[in-house]
Sequence to fold (591 residues):
Amino acid sequence: MLRVSNTAVAFLALAASLWAQDSAPVDQRTVALLVEQVKALQQETSDLREKVKKLEADRPTAPSAVAASATVAPQPPQPTAEATPAESSPELAAAMHDLHGIQWRGFGELDYQALDQRQPELGTYGFVPGSAANFYTGDFDLFLHSRLTERTSVLADISFEEGDAQSYKLDLRQALLKYEMNEHLKISFGRYQTDIGYYNSAFRSAAWLQTTADRPLIMEYASNGGLLPTQAVGVSLTGAIPSGRLGLNYIAEYGTSDTIRPDLNGAGTFNDENDGNHVLVGWFARPDWAPGLQLGGSFFHDKISDSEVSLADRFGQTILNSYVVYIAHGIESLNEVFLIRETQLATGTVSNMPAFYSQISRRWGRVRPFVRYQYINASRRNTIFNDVGLRAGPSFGARYDFNDYVAFKAQLDHTQRQALPDLNGLHLQVAFTF
Amino acid sequence: MNGRSISFLLVTFLASLAFIPTAAAQKDLAVVVNPGNPIANVSLGELRKLFNGEKRSWPGGMGVKLIVRSPGNRERTALLQFLNLSETDYKQHWTALVVRGEADTEPFAAPSIGMVLEAVRALPGAISLVYVGDLKPGVKVIKIDGLLPGAPGYLLR
Fold:
């Protein structure tokens, strides 16, 4: 800016001189006035220079905008070749220190849920089956992350989940030792969230991260009635596939999920699936040409049983998933489709159970209204998911972010259930992070 | 039109010419890295992946250290526009990355340009956005799709 000011002063001086060459006696006062103005501008420039020098002397690492402009030529800068010695300020050093210790983040929630009938329903997260309405605290999560070396880190998700009679269950939802060889190979060992669908890997168990007050039923944790093996112990690999602007990545998992899921009828019965070792292979793409778009899919296979019938009766379980997600410009659009295929190994009986959910929301300032529709059609002949049956219906609501740490969500649900009355619900939630 | 008017118009025109290239170049956002980083050029797509945490290492394996301005600053606003995210969505995005173990921490948010430049000088894998008018020696400006700030067609501003 000072350079511009000098130029302007020079031009003003030039103007004054040109003006003077065409002078008439009556313009002498104008010339004198211009000269005065030029002198005043020169004095102002000099004063500003003094101030800049003083500021630079006081804070050599944080120059003012005026000083910065004064030292930069209007031409595009060329890359510099030499490094200067690092002279870290205490503030910067403190900030950099955080990159090395244990990073932890907490999430909590307070929920109020009301149903329009006392027909028992999913009785998890502290919601009392058969109750018309009650409060509960859902999950209280502590996420810990620590970088051990440049390529090795540890990740854990410790969850305190409210159960019956306000008891709390401790669940180590994730405990992973991660090794990043390069962009193309990242290996994790331990208990992980399976990459069976976008939602499970994107939102983990933090209600604050979700737009809606709850997870879609198909993506609910298996320990809370969800249909999919959402967690497993084993090894997980992922990485980028050289694919140019397509941004292709692969996923491969081999592990044991050992899923136990409660029946959705609130009867307090559980089904231990006694899973074998599952294989999951998947892919996702984040194309450069469509920022915010993510496409993906996965194939999962395992062998499970129905403990409520016979542990010896094994089923081959294959789960196919594909999704399209777009998050940008304030819009969040999540769309996933599943096909759960279970084959009774002894008889060859096959059950195909399709499911999908579609959720769209848009942020307007602090408010993000959302709409979600979900559909599950579990075969009544399948003994493992016969408590689910056909369930479908919309959810409407909005999320309001008070600040960067606290959000309030209000959600209305309508669920059509096969052989049961439709269920209407109100779900209010305060979700927070710390 | 007398000579006085002509000289006034001439001065005004010349003054505006002197001002234009300076203002245009200074509106460009330069992508700066540590001088020890051999990278010289990134595509716009790669730059977006660097700043939204999807790309976490440089060629050769060195980890990327993102340095951003703290909320409310013009470089932060430009970054959010570049990523098509609001401030709230940006923070949620980074919290999700940390929770998923895809990032160690949210990017270091520097309260001043001086601290941004200092961090880029100090950290080998650092990258940040700095307006051309705020550049200082000791950092390396890299090209975006083959263009330096100030060049015709440069997209980051």
Notes: Strands of chain B lie at 29-33, 41-42, 65-69, 108-110, 126-131, 140-144. The radius of gyration of chain B is 19 Å. The first strand of chain B starts at residue 29 and ends at 33.
